[in-house]
Request: fold
Amino acid sequence: MKKGARIHMDRTIFFSIWLLLIIVVGIQWGKKGHSWVYSLVISLLLTPLVGLLIGVFLTPKKKRTNPKITTDKNKEINVEKSKTTSINKIPIVTQQNPDELKMIGEDTYIINPNSTFPLTLEGEKEFIYEFQKSIVESAGWGISYQTRMSLSYWLKGLIKCYELEEFINSMKLEFNTKLSEKKNNSAEWLNAKDELERKDIENYLRTEITNQLSVTPYINNFEHLLFIDNDNETRKYLSNLFLSLDSKCIYLLLKSYSSKSIIVKGDSKERKYWEELVAQDWAIKGKDISIEFIINHLKLRELQELVRDIDNVPTFRKRVEASEYFKNLTDAYERISSIIPLSSIFKIKEFPSSFPPIINIENQWKRARAEVELVVMTFNNSISEYANFNDSINEDKELHSSYTKIVGWKIYALDNCCPHCNKYLDKTFPIENPPLPPFHMGCRCSLTPIYKYEK
Reply:
């Protein structure tokens, strides 16, 4: 019953009993010869007693219960059915704290334990706290920025996530099992002419199987977790880079290593990171870069225009011709600076010979980013789903005296929902105990209330 309707009923009962009391007292006092005024006065004096009796015996009591959150082995949070409010029977949920750390063992902590998907991290408390702090403080800047800010802790091997390792291992097992079955049942694979053809077929099968896994996290580079094995030795080199470089610098370092040169505009946000790479002796700029590399960023007609004041200049038909000509000019850099500031041209230096192959470094960088992105996304989604759930409850309480109320819950998912979560989509869940996403690492499902509108 709505609050307004219940109040109206209480008033009706009160005035009915009060009127009945006047009639009864009036009759009794009339028999004794008293006037009706006495009846009215006595009834008014008895009014507080009538209200008290109605409040005690007729008004429904609001039961308040202490919230209780239980955590099962899979770290999923369920609200007990018995712990509900008298308003619409919606569960009371305690307030989560993204900064909270709960110790459950030696160097083992749960971050934000009251969330819908708490994560178990292994490592020293100091590093776990800094990792958690970096995620929380950068929450408003997007998943990419959050990942970049917290990546160093991962590459240094200072932190491990129990749920992440378990998830990757289970997905790789499922992937390898399906890949083996596909190969054995593929006539194309069995009849392949050579290893090169089999490699092409396997790449196709990999993509096909990745899209058919029972659980698919909503991240851009999920395949990096399946196809790239963890290489601790290579990660040591990457972690050493973090001793002196920002993660954005390392990203530019690996991204631009194969490029001949990079032109960075003066107002670019990346410029300060390039300057840092130069300061740390990982890159060079301006006149330290050879003419051949700089010319690769200029068009032939631009190069031709730069030397139009010189007599008997040949027409450049190939870039190599322009390169050879400019190498012999004593003022080549000055001429190029007239159209491109030399201070905006940067180039990555060759890596030390002690470093692993660049492909190995890039692979470990990709895998580490995918790992952290998955952890950060799960952390963010558990916070947002928890908050949305509480907001829906509070909104329902505010609107309860109006024309709407929550009568159940449904799960909303994106178009590319994985099979694991797809089973929830066609179901309607009761008010008392709805499932709270995320349901797995990288899950993007959300709980949405079902409203009933009454006139």
